[in-house]
Amino acid sequence: MPRNIVEKILYAHYIGGELIPGKGEMAIRIDQTLTQDATGTMAYLQFESLGLDRVEAGLAVSYVDHNTIQVGFENADDHAYLRSVAQRYGVVFSRPGNGICHQLHLERFGKPGATLLGSDSHTPTAGGIGMLAIGAGGIDVAVAMGGGPFFLTSPKVIRITLMGSLKPGVSAKDVILKVIHMLGTMGNTARILEYGGAGVVNLSVPERATIANMGAELGVISSVFPSDEVTLKFLTAQGRAGDWQKLAADKEARYYRRVKINLSNVKPMAACPHSPGNVTAITNLLGKPVHQVLIGSCTNSSYRDLKTVALMLRGKKVHPDVEVGIAPGSRQVVTMLAKEGLLADLVSAGVRILENACGFCIGNHMSPATDAVSLRTSNRNFEGRSGTRSAQVYLVSPETAAAAALTGCISDPRPIIDPRPVAQPLVVEEPDTFGIDDSMFLFQETAGKGVPDTPIVRGPNIGQVPQGKPLPKTLSGEATIKVGDKITTDHIMPAGARLKYRSNIPQYAKYVFEHVDPEFAANAAANRDTGLANIIIAGDSYGQGSSREHAAMCPMYLGVKAIMAKSIERIHWANLVNFGIVPFTFDNPEDYDGISQGDALLIRDLHKVIAGNGRATVYNKTTDTTFDVSVKLSERQKFILLNGGLLAAVAKNAG
User: Fold this and answer.
1) Considering only Cβ atoms within 10 Å of each terminal Cβ, which end of the chain, N or C, has fewer?
2) Using CA atoms, how far apart are residues 400 and 638, in angstroms rounded to an integer?
3) Cα 408 to chain centroid, rounded
4) Helix (H, G, I), strand (E, B), or coil: what is residue 199?
5) Residue 654 pLDDT class (50, 70, 90 cuts)
6) Cβ-count burial of 311 within 10 angstroms (0-12 exposed, 13-18 middle, 19+ buried)?
7) Measured between alpha carbons, how far is 414 from 262 in angstroms, rounded to an integer?
8) How far apart are CA 90 and CA 272, in angstroms?
């Protein structure tokens, strides 16, 4: 039977379950895992709790790229823990300053046709090199590191056929913004995007990676490109030609849906505040004053992107009203820029050179001024994510960002990139050889083996993994909070300065919904201590954004037992199940309107509901009304929920 790329990888890694697209759960073998420090510390604590002697996955890499600013002891303590646990269990450790996990993994470890599971929602970046790369909660990654399977809904594959080639001044960021504009940010769960067509050969691997990276904003499982001669050229330049294999869809391959995009017709785009889905053409925003420009993140920090910006700024000065910062994606990128004199061009233009890390993307520094307009090349512009709630954050390409840096306002980059007939267009070609220095990847010689006598370093901020409790037979609780549509994991668990508590759940849980309802944590804890369950009422697309499992773990710690929402995003839905919280959805979305914060809610025979078809009638004791909710679960997920979460279920199985 003819197969598409996704099917070829899934069949090669198939362990069990359903193979009918959109019908049930399937299990696959994972070749590689990655973690980053914001999610990895808890992932390794969970791995330790499994009681294994070493990592069983083919390759596990622990990156430190999120909380690299060390104000106080907490982040440094986490880094010391991660380094020691990596050596103990056979994990490759990427030191702080080496770069951003997705850029580094693309450069040094990604393999066409392999599977990658990462505790970061932008793990699909590696789809640009032909991997099936999936973001998941840390506990799922911990299980995969231990050799266990990863479970996902058998996906529906959408084929995006690319034709033509990009015009000067238009880049891969504009392509993915167009895709988001076409497909939206909701309703894409259980889908994978597969790119193909004659236009693919006109995109380099870093450009493909940019497109795959922001597929996460659509809510899809992953995005995958073919592996072709362009892929071979990139891997050869990275000294890894031996990792290449050809990977393409069969001519008669079938797809759930087909979409066509002519790259020649794509124009500079922007995602306006406060959603990656709020996309418009740059020409609709021309002249809007800009106060800050930040270039980098795992989306747009490659050698190609930053060299383009450096050449645009060469011999010029940034506008006096604009603050400009650039964060290279890896040490490889910044070293190559320095050797070519491009770093000096950026500094001379008035650019602040930031660390090779996620930094500004997660609101960890470079927060804009009050009411400021900030243009960023990152992938998310949720309200308050920058660290400044009143800021207006726009997502744009490196070219559009550089144009604004020069002009002080949102500008079309095409006349700068392509000034003909005065001069030739500014074009950056992929190098024949990248600068390779793997000295900041530690423990490569013991990867998969480990050093068993390595002492684990545990500072005072390294806590215990919280254990879930079995679901009550009767769910008697309170609608402790009611939220609207598109509630992100940043709304649930603030990042930025609060992220340093990620290893200390009792402390981090104090900030659940901090910017939505400052009283939530205290109210939820009070209910928990009196035996009353907490229930979250939500609108559409609850749990957008990061794979940060703390958005399920901390509510679990506070006694949240159920979510009742119009819809829930894929990674967060899985995290809720993994931590023993039932992810119900309304059978009739209009019932959401009849519930108020503080209402007393009751579900009788909850165990029977979970063990059965997942359908429940909820009695609202406050209004003396009822409404119906449901949750579709596999037998595995039923077992997990009934026992209070994945770790508890694993412990019971082990017993």
Assistant:
1) C
2) 48
3) 31
4) helix
5) low
6) middle
7) 18
8) 43
Query: Are 381 and 393 contacting, i.e. CB atoms less than 8 angstroms apart?
Result: yes
Calpha distance 577→593 (Å, rounded): 25
Q: What is the pLDDT of residue 365?
A: 86
- Dihedral class, residue 350 (left if φ above 0, else alpha if ψ from -120 to 50, else beta): left
Ordered DSSP codes for 163-227? ES-PPTT--HHHHHHHHHHHH-SSS-TTEEEEEESGGGGGS-HHHHHHHHHGGGGGT-SEEE--B
Q: What angle do CA 455, 461, 467 make, to 5 degrees?
A: 90
Sequence-ordered list of residues with C-beta below 8 angstroms from that of 611, at least 6 positions apart, any chain: 638, 642
Please say whether the beta carbons of 178 and 140 come within 8 A: no
Asked if omega into 365 is within 30° of 0 (cis), the reply is: no
| Ramachandran sector of residue 271 (left: φ over 0; alpha: ψ -120 to 50; beta: rest) | beta
For the entire predicted model, the pTM comes to 0.92
Closest of 578, 449, 457, 447 to residue 52, by C-alpha: 449
Q: Are 126 and 215 in contact (CB under 8 A)?
A: no
Q: How confident is the model at residue 500 (pLDDT cuts 50, 70, 90)?
A: confident
Gap between the Cα atoms of 64 and 568, Å rounded: 29
| Buried b or exposed e, range 334-358, using 16+ CB within 10 angstroms | bbbbeeeebbebbeebbbeebbbbb
Closest to 132 in 3D by CA, of 26, 277, 37:
26
Q: What's 488's DSSP letter?
A: B
Cα–Cα distance for residue pair 558/510, rounded to 1 Å: 9
Q: What is the mean pLDDT of residues 363-378?
A: 93
> pLDDT digit string (tens) for 509-536?
999 999 999 999 999 999 999 999 999 9
Q: For the sheet containing 156-163, what is the strand order?
A: 222-224, 191-196, 156-163, 257-262
CB atoms within 10 A of CB 229: 10
- In angstroms, how far apart are the furthest CA atoms of the chain? 76
pLDDT digits (tens, 9 = 90+) for 250-261: 999 999 999 999
Other C-beta atoms lying within 10 Å of the C-beta of residue 623: 13
Q: Which amino acid is at 404?
A: A
Query: Residues with Cβ < 8 Å from 424, sequence gap 6 or more?
Result: none
Beta strands in 463-519 (DSSP E): 475-482
280 beta partners: 270
Nearest C-alpha neighbor of 159 from the set 202, 128, 193: 193
632 to each of 192, 487, 532, 570, 610, how far by Cα in Å? Answer: 20, 22, 25, 13, 9
